[in-house]
Automatic annotation (TrEMBL):
Name the record gives this protein: Acetyltransferase, ribosomal protein N-acetylase
The organism's taxonomic lineage, starting at the top: Bacteria, Bacillati, Bacillota, Clostridia, Eubacteriales
Boundaries of every N-acetyltransferase domain copy: 7-171
Single GO MF annotation: acyltransferase activity, transferring groups other than amino-acyl groups
InterPro entries documented for this protein: Acyl_CoA_acyltransferase, GNAT_dom
Keyword set includes Transferase: yes
Organism: Desulfosporosinus youngiae DSM 17734
Keyword tags: Transferase
Protein's UniProt keywords contain ATP-binding: no
């Protein structure tokens, strides 16, 4: 387990599946997590369990807990490039009562530090959609910079939106947040 000021990150456990099932089938959570509402696919509990417990060996998934060890979200990384020492990051705060209270930012800081120090990544990237301003601001607090956009790459609620591409280098993060 790795601990931040407000959050703890640990591997996903079987007991987490019920909560994950609720979040990943919630239109608000999906809208802000990926711009994917209406959902591309509605997942049942068995599919959620398969995705999070037995999923791809190339995607690393973890649970985000609050100060009382209550599950509030998930975080992870994928698209690992060993020669380039890079990966893509994702985070979802599924418990909506924790939105806008700094839990996502805290989880990102502690997890990004883990990725740079333990996995020895040089660069971490992520993407979101242009109207997800709350997420973009949280990413910028961590040190991510907007590196580009893919025009009309997301279809959200009947309209096309730009995908916002963001990146963070190890030296930038360490200068901002220390080891």
């Amino acid at each position: 387990m790795i601990r931040g000021q407000k959050t703890t990150i640990r591997p996903i456990e079987e007991d987490d599946i019920e909560e994950l099932y609720q979040w990943y089938n919630d239109p608000d959570v999906n809208l802000w997590a990926s711009g994917a509402w209406p959902l591309n696919t509605l997942l049942n509990k068995d599919q959620i369990a398969l995705k999070f417990l037995d999923g791809s060996p190339d995607i690393y998934r973890y649970s985000v807990l609050d100060e009382n060890n209550l599950l509030i979200g998930t975080i992870g990384f994928k698209d690992i490039n060993i020669p380039g020492q890079s990966a893509a990051l994702y985070i979802v705060i599924g418990n909506k009562s924790y939105w806008g209270k700094g839990y996502g930012t805290d989880a990102l800081i502690v997890f990004v530090r883990f990725l740079f120090n333990q996995w020895n990544f040089h660069r971490i990237s992520l993407d979101t959609w242009d109207e997800n301003i709350r997420a973009i601001k949280a990413y910028e607090k961590v040190g991510f910079k907007i590196e580009g956009r893919q025009r009309e790459a997301r279809f959200v609620l009947g309209n096309y939106h730009d995908a916002i591409l963001m990146g963070l280098l190890r030296d930038e993060f360490l200068a901002l947040h220390g080891k």
